Amino acid sequence: MDFSLFESVLEESQIISGDGLKVRYHHIWHMDQPLKALCLLLPETTEEVSNIMKICYENDLPVVVHGGLTNLVGSTETDGHEVVISTERLNNIEEIDTSSRTMTVQAGVILENIHEAAASADLLFPLNFGARGSAQIGGIISTNAGGLRVLKYGMTRQLILGLEAVMADGSIISSMKKIIKDNSAYDVKQLFIGSEGTLGIVTKAILKLEEAPNSRNAAYIGFNDYHKVVTFLKYMDSNLAGKLSGFELIWRNSYVQMTSVSDAVRPPLPYEYNYYVLIEALGSHPQNDQIEFQVLLENAIEKEQVLDAVMAQSPSDVEWFFRIREDVNNLVDFMKHDQHFDISLPIPLIGQYIADRYKSLSQIEGVEQVFAFGHVADGNIHFMVGKTNLSPELKKQIDHCIYDGLKEMGGSVSAEHGIGTHKKDYLKLCRSIEEITLMKSIKSIMDPKSLLNPGKIF
Amino acid sequence: MDFSLFESVLEESQIISGDGLKVRYHHIWHMDQPLKALCLLLPETTEEVSNIMKICYENDLPVVVHGGLTNLVGSTETDGHEVVISTERLNNIEEIDTSSRTMTVQAGVILENIHEAAASADLLFPLNFGARGSAQIGGIISTNAGGLRVLKYGMTRQLILGLEAVMADGSIISSMKKIIKDNSAYDVKQLFIGSEGTLGIVTKAILKLEEAPNSRNAAYIGFNDYHKVVTFLKYMDSNLAGKLSGFELIWRNSYVQMTSVSDAVRPPLPYEYNYYVLIEALGSHPQNDQIEFQVLLENAIEKEQVLDAVMAQSPSDVEWFFRIREDVNNLVDFMKHDQHFDISLPIPLIGQYIADRYKSLSQIEGVEQVFAFGHVADGNIHFMVGKTNLSPELKKQIDHCIYDGLKEMGGSVSAEHGIGTHKKDYLKLCRSIEEITLMKSIKSIMDPKSLLNPGKIF
């Protein structure tokens, strides 16, 4: 390939090829696999991304965009024949507007940096998940990331006010507005959110910020019956009136494993319950909020809604409680090979569904461990399945065991990670022929040459 | 036209034509204008809507869908050559799921009935606006309605979990899921939300419900400086930590008029301030919430953040406070002819922008009154302009006076009502050529014969 094409629009230092690619990675969790690509480009402005795409469009070059590479479903995989555009130098926080409560950012800004910048203005960007130190906002938007506070603040889609993207032909589509309400015709920015880079390249966004909370309370609660978990969710959400921000469920065996590896993740509650819930509330009055939270838990115990509860007594307790839930490596490290899932289904059906899956997975030869945990208030459960080998047959057997009942239940094969390459075969299990046909027509008009993130989703 | 076409898919009583149309209306606020249409059809199921559309597609018949007709921007207007599909018999509430906190409804269910059904299950459908007694959920979804509680709960888009729509060719596209998180490829339901019936006909939806609040507090607050309004918004939002649900701003002259016509809308505060804010908070602990709300207001007065405040002391006070804001007829009745606006712009720019518009509107001959008020926390201001005559020149002059500065400010010509026919000429003032081009390509693949709500938006 003739890289001089790109030299007309980029500096030499922004074009990496040949041996330079060897220190680049395919996947942030598999750093042993070097990047396979024609070249990697490092644009610093939207115009540069636009110029790159004009060249790619003219020359029929397929393009994959790399942000933090934390997607987990193969959304950023390459075959070697693609131009990779890295957003790492698109890393400016352009503005924080404290009155509009917005932040204007380029696509490559890392989530943790957004958190810090917001906090420095007494504001909060509420989106939060384990990969916050690597995930970039462009990728977060392209995958409509969820995480730990969707219950209170919504998914990424709810937090994007303005958006700018570069289309396949290099044209720039910009709607950089700070306003919450804009019903002037179709909300086309929705198309770029959650489409995994297959419809356009997100280059800039205006994020919706919230007033920073002053109090944070957390607790672990033990249950034996799933239906009591659902009743407790309603009880806490109703009584905390907007302050309940997290409601995570961990199945007993996952909790045991998550709390066994070090003192930093020691168990807050004993190992005698079937279900462990981690709840979080964000408020504005530290003293009152703590008392209110505690009284609600005491009442729940008294009324036998819950079996046991332990409340974080300090910020470091809160950190301890969350580390247990967030450090999934404590599960992964324990497995020979791992296969993970990210399903969603209606909240009342989750208990029975997971119980059934534990049973049927245990009957598959080659399955060694099954760990379930997740954002139960969002109907989103993560599964990690440990297995003895990487055979495609075993993978398929496990996939089918997890996915096969979902369609009838109105569930989804991907609550938050997306389809990428890993779940392509299962898309039809949760979307109808009519939906997929419509998606493909949209893809065909927005990316007529199929250059954007080829081979992903469909 | 040969109505027997439709007799193959509907009962005779579901087809209205000729004289039958005379008792039907063009617009709910102009009940003197009878409906002009080829015929009006009254389907009772999604399948009937689908069958109607198959016939219309086959025979190139344009279609306009009529719900509650409260859109205000000509979105449901007809010329006389269209088939009108009324959703009024699609009025079943199919299910309330208290654990999933969802309600499944057909498109013709009226918002107020949704409110009542949710309340009967101790839940809340938070969307709320003046036309709730007429507006139907299908139209609400098609226009992405906003209203009085967007600040806390979001616009309609944020409250729709599942959606079913009939496409131009009669095919049914269904994604009736109760789940909050579904990242399985493109979220195509977003296309039907806010596209004013031009891309498909919404027939069914699954609504996201919230736990019902137990306390409701409200107050009027007086200010002379706009920037203090913004500071107060941040102060209350920060301190109420998720409980602040409404923050409405009324300019002095609008407040005077709104509180002058009867004892039911008597003024809660005297006429001496430049700005009046109506705030609402929804919580779960009546006694504590009232004390907290009061203390916050007292502190604001003490710190001279606000000049005056009066708090509702009873549910009937709350009703009184809201009646003032909601009964816009108290403004309309006062005008010879009215022209209304529904703009949005970044919150910090609103004060100066509106002040400038008051000045320049007053210099237009034929303008008699100018009233501004709106959902300031959402950056959304409504203007009502009273005028002496209906000349197109005067209308245009007023339109330009309101819209001309918006583009540079990152504003929108429609925050919540939509484009319809009334704002078509101004769409380009807030959307780029690239955005409009993309919208038109989407329209062309989803409605290739341009049969759905023809002449609207573009």
UniProtKB/TrEMBL annotation, chains A, B:
InterPro entries: FAD-bd_oxidored_4_C, FAD-bd_PCMH, FAD-bd_PCMH-like_sf, FAD-bd_PCMH_sub1, FAD-bd_PCMH_sub2, FAD-linked_Oxase-like_C, FAD-oxidored/transferase_4, Oxid_FAD_bind_N. The keyword Secreted does not apply. One of its GO terms (biological process) is respiratory electron transport chain. Its cofactor is FAD. GO terms for molecular function: FAD binding; oxidoreductase activity. Keywords: FAD, Flavoprotein, Oxidoreductase. The keyword Flavoprotein applies. Residues 31-212 form the FAD-binding PCMH-type domain. Belongs to the FAD-binding oxidoreductase/transferase type 4 family. This is FAD-binding oxidoreductase. It comes from Nonlabens arenilitoris. The lineage of its organism: Bacteria, Pseudomonadati, Bacteroidota, Flavobacteriia, Flavobacteriales.
